[in-house]
Amino acid sequence: MLAAFRRAAGGLLRAPAPPPASHVRSYAESRTALRKLAKKRELDEVMSRTKAVFKTYKPVTPGIRHLRRPLNVHLWQGRPVLQLTVAKRKKGGRNARGRITVRHRGGGHRQRIRIVDFKREEPGVHFVVRIEYDPGRSAHIALLKNRDPNAQGTKKWSYIIAPEGLRAGDEVQSFRQGIPDGFVSGLDVSKLNGKAGALEADGAVDEVVAGSAEAIQRELEQSSSQSLALGLLRTLTLKPGNVLPLRLIPIGTVVHNIALVASGPGVLVRSAGSAGQVVGHEESKYTHVQLQSGEVRKILQDCCATIGRVSNPLWKNRNLGKAGRARWLGRRPSVRGVAMNANDHPHGGGRGKSKSNKHPVSIWGWGARGTRTRKPGPKGPKNSNKMVVRERPRGKAKRSN
Q1: What pTM was estimated for this model as a whole?
Q2: Helix crossing, 213-220 with 224-237: angle to 10°?
Q3: H runs (alpha helix) in 276-342
Q4: Where are the annotated segments for Disordered (predicted)?
Q5: Could you please report the per-residue DSSP string of 14-72?
């Protein structure tokens, strides 16, 4: 009886028969197909990310529920070049006497100031090594390396404001010192560089200022060969990141980092996503440039500008998500005037939420909410700013744009 029980138990504990080979093959094929489908779905999500230009997060904490950052996968993740930075000593918005002159500043993470080259005086081809984040500005910066083997120090490595579309591996060049000889075959660069003798030697019929944009344009368009050379020159020079004098930039070109002095650094149009546009050249020594605000301004034609629009245009649409990130950036809280006492703000005081019947003003009593406190441009006192051709639009004109 025991032997019979053992025989029965052995039959039950025996391993089941393996499935047919066709079933195993179909199961393996289905797993492979599912894996390929998942990879294809993931690839499609990555490639179809045209609308998702911001990085958002799953709201596992309140601080990241509304956090939104622009997607910049091309940014360098490491540290900057130490030789191109200096320590930032924070003052907390206080002057030498210890009094607060700029409110809402203090604290923040430790930062280093990036030394950005706004002049671009070094000629020759420079390679773009990488695009980096700069905590001191809204735009990105690009690390350049001079191709000249004899260059050393800051002449070999430098930071510039990165224009939109500039990536690692690109080449940029500065033509601040003029177009080099032999840059384009068949083109007389002496006319482009503003040498007076060249225009007179070729028999210029118009008595204009040597080197002006209109004179250069007429001189070069006299022959078809010169026109072809001019077109080739514009193709080689009008690239994002290149620096050119305004007299060599054609009308309609988008520029940034515009200088106001011929030998000075760029001071206009440097924030993220901003751009200016060349709208005209005068017979004299001025070029009309429309700035980001809509103001049209006269700038000397010997001043230089960089081709292209400033990078990081989505910076203004970011959302920090919580107050702590503002503190990390060195921004202290801002208190409303109606929440203060009467001796702290013109809006302060009163019982409860009282607004009174006064016009809104700043903490110093200046008119706010549209009240004009200065008259720049041609309408100013005694024509204070003669370089402004058209003021920036305000009020209804600004809303219509």
Answers
A1: 0.78
A2: 130
A3: 323-328
A4: 338-401
A5: SPPPPPPHHHHHHHHHHHHHHHHHHHHHHHHHHHTTTS--EEE---SSGGGTS-EEE--
